[in-house]
Each structure stands twice: as C-alpha cells, then as structure tokens.
Amino acid sequence: MEDFENALAQYDYEFQRGQIITGKPINYDTSGVYIDIGAKAAAFLPSEEASIRKVADLSEIVPLNEEREFLIIREQNADGQITLSLRQLAFRKAWDELSEVQAEERSLQVRVTGVNKGGVTVDAHGLRGFIPRSHLTERNNLEGLVGQSLSVTVLELNREKKKLVLSNRLATRSESVSQFELGQLVEGTVSGIKPFGVFVELDGNATGLLHINQISKNYVESLEKVFHIGQSVKALVADIDSSKGRIALSIKVLERYPGENLEQLDQVMAEAGDRYEKAKKNLTRD
C-alpha cells in the first residue's frame, strides 16, 4: 500500500489530454522545449508541435520565461511528464474562429497555396481550405492565383472531417453590395430579362434584381415590352442581403399613377431624381 501511495504521488491527475494550461518555457532541448506548468515534473513541447508552420529557431516561437497557453496532447508518462502542443492549440483556435466567421456570415482573407482540377487550395488561419472553381471570380488562370490573397466566405465547415470549403465569388458579391444603402436611388444598366424580373448591373460589380412585382402598381404583362438589354435604369434599393450579395430594386414608388412605368418609362427615368426626393418627403411626413 505504501508503494502504491508513493507511485500515486508521482502523478498530477489534474492534467488531462485536451486541457489548455498555462506554462513558461524554461529550457531548450535538441528536440523541443521544457515547460514549467507548476507540476512535479516539467512538461515537454516537441519541436514539431511548436507551430503550424515549419520552425527554424524555437527561441523565436517559444521565448524562455514568457508565459503562454499550451494544449496537453499526451498525459503523464512513467516519469510524470506530460507532452504539450502549440500547433494543435492553434488549429483548435483557428477552427473556432472560422466557425464564428461562418455563423456571423463574415468574410476573411486567405492565401492561395496550390491548384487542382477542381479549384484552388488555400491557407485559412493555418488550416487547409478549398475554393471550388465555380466559386472563384477568376476561373481562367488558376495558376496565376497562387500566392495571392483572396477574400472568401465559408461555404462548408466540418471540424471532425477537417473539411473547409470557401467561396471567393460570394465574398466579392457581399463586399460589392456593402457600398449600397436601403432606400438609396441607384442607376444601372439592364443586363438580363427573365420572366420574374430584370437584372440591373450597378457600380462596383454589383447586380440588382428589379422583380416584376416592383416595376409598377399595375399588372406587368410583358417585361420585354418595357425593357431592353443595355437600357439605363434608375431605381430604389428595396432590400440588401449582404450574406448572399443580393440587392432588390424597385421603381414602382416613382409612379405618379398606377401603370405609368409601363406607358412612359423614359419620362419617369428622366424625372427619377425629383420623384425620389418627393417620395422621401412623403414617407417622412407619413
């Protein structure tokens, strides 16, 4: 029983794998660094666990006597020593940060590291991510993207499978719509006509949708009779979806009577500025 108690005394059972602890580097070794964590034996940080990237000089990454957090990756051995990692702690924090980016529908900057047949690989906070070709704004010269920094949003994140899929195209759209404000009068050019509405190219590489229900207070029988490709259009920003890079437009508020936009759209567009100011005053009074 005495031998058993002595054996137990050699171990600090409060230290468990996966736990984050605070320690202070105290001595370098040919294969790593010894860390004082307040235990009976100093913990050990192997060189390969010091950083996500290759380390040439441990003293630059882990200065002596500088207190910081470490992740326990291996519990106590027969000598009571535990093994620590900064690399895996950085990976854990990177996944946490990217999860927040995804939840908040924000964008981040990544660096392109390689190319494959489906798209490009990137470094995202030290993690390996992938951008499919269909989600790149530049799709014709993928090799030319290597080394470049791209703005992206998170499409898919699976920490267990270490899967990270990103979109440069959606991030670019999101940034392009951020310059617009709800209720703003904008001008653009008709770039597409569909049964449900008209697409309008705006400044800053943004595209707005003028839905058929937002064209007139009267029923619109044929969009092709009212619009043509290349036509200049002024409209109000009715809605903005930054996460999807979408802008909804409206011109029916510029009408003085139902159906005016269908009968004499050119005149309405010529007077759009004055009509817009009047509409704003009316809304303010209401």
**Strand segment tally:** 15
Number of helices: 7
Which sheet architecture does the biggest sheet show? Answer: 5 strands, antiparallel
Element-level helix/strand string:
HEEEHEEHEEEEEHEEEEEHHH
Taking all Cα atoms into account, the compactness measure Rg is 30 Å
CATH class assignment of the largest domain:
Mainly Beta
Average pLDDT works out at 88
Number of spatially distinct domains: 3
Provide a short characterization of the protein structure.
The chain has helices spanning 2-9, 58-61, 87-103, 168-177, 260-263, 265-270, 272-285, and strands spanning 20-29, 32-36, 43-46, 68-74, 83-85, 108-116, 119-124, 127-132, 149-158, 163-167, 185-194, 197-202, 206-211, 232-241, 246-250.
Structural features, described:
With 286 residues, the protein is of the alpha+beta class. It contains 7 helices and 15 strands. It has helices spanning 2-9, 58-61, 87-103, 168-177, 260-263, 265-270, 272-285, and strands at residues 20-29, 32-36, 43-46, 68-74, 83-85, 108-116, 119-124, 127-132, 149-158, 163-167, 185-194, 197-202, 206-211, 232-241, 246-250. The strands form 3 sheets. Strands 3-2-1-4-5 form a 5-stranded antiparallel β-sheet. It has a 5-stranded antiparallel β-sheet with strand order 8-7-6-9-10. A 5-stranded mixed β-barrel has the order 11-12-13-15-14. The radius of gyration is 30 Å and the shape is elongated.
Sum up the structure in keywords.
OB fold (Dihydrolipoamide Acetyltransferase, E2P); 286 residues; five-stranded antiparallel β-sheet; alpha+beta; 7 helices
